[in-house]
Write a structure and sequence with these properties.
- This protein is of the alpha/beta class.
- The strands form two sheets. A four-stranded mixed β-sheet has the order 1-4-3-2, with helices on one face. A four-stranded mixed β-sheet has the order 5-8-7-6, with helices on one face.
- A hairpin with a 6-residue loop joins strand 3 and strand 4.
- The two termini are about 20 Å apart.
Length: about 120
Amino acid sequence: MTATWKIELIPVPVTDVDRAKAFYERIGFHADHDHQVSEGLRFVQLTPPGSACSIVIGDGITEKAPGSQEIQVVVADAEAARKQLLAVDVEAGEVDVQPWGNFVHFRDPDGNSWSLQAIEYRPNG
């Protein structure tokens, strides 16, 4: 029997925590936690709408360079997701139609890249 594995949290390196938090809230993420754990450690957890996996930004979270994270998420409709981003003044690429799905790409204020993928069928839900 194989145990179920579910991704819970992905660290996203940023230079300005408050600017990044405001950006992610603007595109629809929910701020689950924002705690100053100790001096040098601030933990801000944000969850995309409908996702079981969250991102974490903050001070003392990761040693990765801001702008180095790449994340791909699944959306129901790439064009609708693009329109949602444009409606809140986020620069988003055109819908890139591929045989394995439709994609929209954007970056956060630090340059971390996001790929939104819409696919008709996903074997694992």
